Amino acid sequence: MKERILQTLRELRTYALGKGVEVVLFYHEEDSYLMRFANSAISLNTNEHLIRLEIVAYSDRKRASYEMITDLSKLDEMKQGVDIAAEMVQHAQPLMYQPTIPQFTETFSDESGYDATLAQISNEERLGYFNQAVKGLETSDIKLSGIFSNGANTLAQITTRSEHTQYFKTSDAQVTVVLAHGTLKWEVIAEQSAQKKSELDPSALHRDLAFLLDHYQHDTPQQIPLGKYDIVFGPAATADVLHFMNWIGFGGGMMKRGYSFLTEEQIGKKVFSDKFDLTDDPTRLETFPARQDFTGIPRKPFPIFQKGVFQGFTWFQDDADEFGAKPTGHTVMHKSLVLACGDQEVNTLEELVAMPRDKDILYIPFLHYTNIVNPSKGVITGSSRFGALLLKKGGSVVVPYNVRLTQSLLDIFGDKIAWLSKSATPYNISASYGARNPSAIIVPTFVRVNDLEISHSNASY
Amino acid sequence: MLGQLKQHIERIKGKGATYLDARWYPFEEANFLTMWNGNLKNTSASRESGLGIRVLYKGAWGFSASSDLSDVAGLFDKAFDNARVAAERVTFPVRLAEKDAIQAKFESPCRINPFEVSLSEKVAFLKEMDEKLDQPGVFQRVSDLSFMRKQIVFVDSEGSEIEKLITEVFPTLQVLGRDSEGGAHERKYRPGRIGETRGWESIDRQLFSQHAERIVKELNQVLVADTCPKEDRSVIILPGLMYLQTHETIGHALELDRILGYELAFAGGSFVTLDDFGKLRYGSPKLTARADATLLNSPGSFGYDDDGVPAQNNVLIDKGILVGAITGRQMVEEANAKARRQVFDGSGGANRATAFYRVPIERMTNINIDPGEDGSLDDIIKTTEKGMIVDGDHSWSIGSNREQFHFGAEIGWLVDDGQVTKVVKNPTHKGDTVKFWNSLSAVGDKSTWEVKFVDNCGKGQPNQIMQLGHGIPVCRFDNVRIGE
Questions:
Q1: Could you give the CA distance from residue A63 to residue A23 in angstroms, rounded to a whole number?
Q2: CA distance A461 to chain B (A)
Q3: Which of A156, B23, B105, B127 is the most buried if burial means most Cβ atoms within 10 Å?
Q4: Which of B457, B454, B430 is CA-nearest to residue B239?
Q5: Which stretches within A144-195 are classed as H helix?
Q6: Distance (Å, rounded) from C-alpha A88 to C-alpha A62?
């Protein structure tokens, strides 16, 4: 199949050259499977096999693109796509800068992130995994929801600038298991991200769910007072906050357009806690990385913050072209962010709850519907969801109703960081809008931040 | 193709499937153009075609889709196999509400097909707008045009055959500026729907020019404004934000699949229970909201949903009392059974899929608020002692059961003793949904009512983007926390 894909791209390249058109061809193939659960039943069992071809045509400073959902047997249709892109670019308006057309200097292929046994996992195995993860935990009131999403992604590229191709193939799985009370409306969650089949471990999810259920089934939820709390974030919450930082933080184009809380003057300066080391690390397969970017730049670990000091912006090729910056190998569908771990010995929620404490600690595993309130100040807002716990000073545990946190990233990752756990978790942040794009952020399993303000506290679920 | 689809529907029925439908998209095309600071950054187009098959077997759904139509039989078999495995874990066997078998066609009103308008004409429009926006105080200026056109052929095992042709046009202007402290502020213009069509002709250049000037002027007012105070005030919400307030705290909260717990793995649930219908005072008596899929000029109108049910105009909240929901065939049956009473009288015709490769789920149509009797915006301001007018969707974040929210607007105007006193920057308001809607103290008349479009509502797993609308008047709410 690989050779057939590359041969198709070569034929299209030859066709474009014959027509005198400068093009970049980008092939995306996904084989996606999703089993979705709701109300303890399989509410949807679906699969999609989709091939997308994007054709970007250039004419000096003009650029236009045409994307089609197609299949490999339709070479004539794809050639028509080249014609359409070529026609479009004639009528486009020149950019005020010279766009770079990728020129691959060698043929590159990376299938190191592909595990056929994960990509081809069967319907029965997906169901079996779920049955194991929630064995004995469902009741007539406590119902299962969740997804088992897995698939394979194939990307391939060629340009009219050279005969060389780029080819990437990955496999991925994202599992979310939610147990929710039908009338009381509380919810608890356990999740897993996998790049290969051996990483799937339903017993770990069962352990976390059983522990949370023990509290949620037996404790009466409370509305907690507004004010400042020491908060321990779980992997989902930490990854969510980092995801927003990626958006309004260290992307050079966003900074130049005024959507960032970071400035060029801050490069080399301390922005966050000295416990904060953030790297874009494409060597970590758990993040479903691209080891070479889509312009052919080899990707290596790229430090973004070291001991809280900002190391520099990442640049997408088109932004680099527009603003005269040097591209950094970040013309990719997603980065491979890794937040370095700390030295706190805590691996599981059970261990976190058992830790001695001299004041109340609010555990927030997940932030729901986070959004940006003020990009210039890095202020975001979101609500807790899925199994928050208030760990009381004396050792007892209270189940809180959900709360809202409206805070600046500068506060969350500033000097208020008390500790980061020694253990790490790859948290899957894949969104299933549009083309499949598996992505994950590796975070410390727990991060404690002191003195953060709760701005709203629910009186119910 | 139709004959082939019908043949396979009968074949799979023979294997024990109780219901099947096929959605064949002969084509779906889109065109996106973005001019950013004078650069035509995005000139893109797309086209796709394919087939999605939905099979109901022993009370469970299976779905399969592909753009490759060389093996239609295999696609049906795969959907059936997916349903067969899903049937191993069924708690409430899917039943579908009754509907008539329909043979029909629907075409959204469109005088000028935007795909027949030349690229140069579209680029000329963007260039003209870009020049209008290129004014002092403006740091970034963005003009967007996006167009969609799709043909959908629906056929099911109950004898329905429906063909739809839907065309949409979505234009947006946006400016961004920086205040003296480096803080970024934005102002956007997304036109309300005017006229009765939704093609290229719906873009009124003169209106865009006027609003381009207005948003630049308002941005410059924000850049030198004081920060929004942190206190309790009445909030007067203009349609440019009121549409989103309605979308998030009425629309999503009243999707019946959310109420029944079908979105708990991702999007969330709803504070509304089945027991609330007919009883819950959702808002003050000034609030009447409806799901109206019959508005001619809005993307929330589509003729027939993807269950093959005709578009309807249903009241959701009647003078403050919750009476209806956003529904499709499956969910109304389950809701009525679980409530042990007839809460819903048939499907509300709101089951839609974003593409051939996605399964239909309950989506908003046009979720509207009826105009009120409290006069014009000026009339409402005059009767406001201490308030803030807000406009523009800057930020929104909602609790997982839609029980509380936090909104940020692009611009605020403080109102004291019936008069607008000054502009403020970074205005926000927050609240608890039911308490908030019960504080609704004024609803503007028809002069304040606008139909706003939403081109990117997300829901479901796999995620689906949907287009819809909101017909919204100016509304005032009392004792709202602002500035946090």
A1: 9
A2: 7
A3: B23
A4: B454
A5: none
A6: 10
pLDDT tens across B418-445, in order? 999 999 999 999 999 999 999 999 999 9
Q: Is A246 on the interface with B (CB under 8 A)?
A: no
The CATH number of the domain covering residues in B2-224: 3.30.2290.10
CA distance B401 to chain A (A): 7
SS3 B323: coil
* Record: contact B395-A71, CB cut-off 8 A: no
Closest by CA position to A405, among listed A344, A346, A449, A340: A449
> Is B60–A45 a contact, with Cβ atoms under 8 angstroms apart?
yes
| Domains parsed from chain A with CATH numbers | 2-218 (3.30.2290.10), 227-457 (no CATH)
Residue in A123, A147, A459 closest to B265 by CB: A147
Residues A389/A393/A396/A400 CA torsion (nearest 10 deg): -30
Q: Does A132 touch chain B (CB under 8 A)?
A: no
Closest-CA distance of chain B to residue A336, Å: 22
Rounded to whole angstroms, the Cα distance separating B395 from A370 reads 10
Low-confidence ranges of chain B (pLDDT < 50): none
Q: Which residues neighbour B367 within 8 Å (Cβ) at sequence distance 6 or greater?
A: B246, B247, B250, B251, B254, B289, B290, B291, B300, B316, B326, B468, B470
Q: For residues B75 and B50, is the Cβ–Cβ distance under 8 A?
A: no
Left if phi > 0, otherwise alpha if psi is -120 to 50, otherwise beta: which for A436?
A: beta
User: Is A460 close to B271, i.e. CB distance below 8 A?
Assistant: yes
Domain spans in chain B, listed from the N-terminal domain onward: 2-224, 227-482
First to last CA, chain B: 57
Residue type, B208: F
Q: Is A65 on the interface with B (CB under 8 A)?
A: yes
Does position A433 have pLDDT exceeding 80, yes or no?
no
